[in-house]
Amino acid sequence: MPNCEGKPIFSLPVRVYYEDTDSGGVVYYANYLKFMERARTEWLRSLGFEQDELRLRDGLLFAVRRAEIDYLRPALFNDLLRVTVAPCLGGGASLVFEQEVQREADATLCCRGRIKVACVGERTLRPNRIPEHLLAEIADVL
Asked: Is 52 among the residues known to form the active site?
């Protein structure tokens, strides 16, 4: 997979709610993936693209193809987290994102991941090249 180091980083603040935690007040491990998904969606939105519009106009969806996650330190109920996104091209039909989840109060790195997202056709669910108009915007930030 390509190396995304040195790429511009987008970040999103995320508050940990009670519903995000287990009975001990620790963020449930799968919720880090939700936080990362939310940050990737907001990154795409910051470029002027809405996923529902891409589906309607271009017949395209984005699907996670691979996720590598390292859980380092627990995040807790009511923590304010910073979720980062560093994108890079993964191929003609995919993007790779390096992401981190840090606790804002003390900059503790809670989780880091490398997510590969495939562009697929809405009807076929088969890989599709990333459209040129989207690729042009993404290339400007890579």
From this structure: no
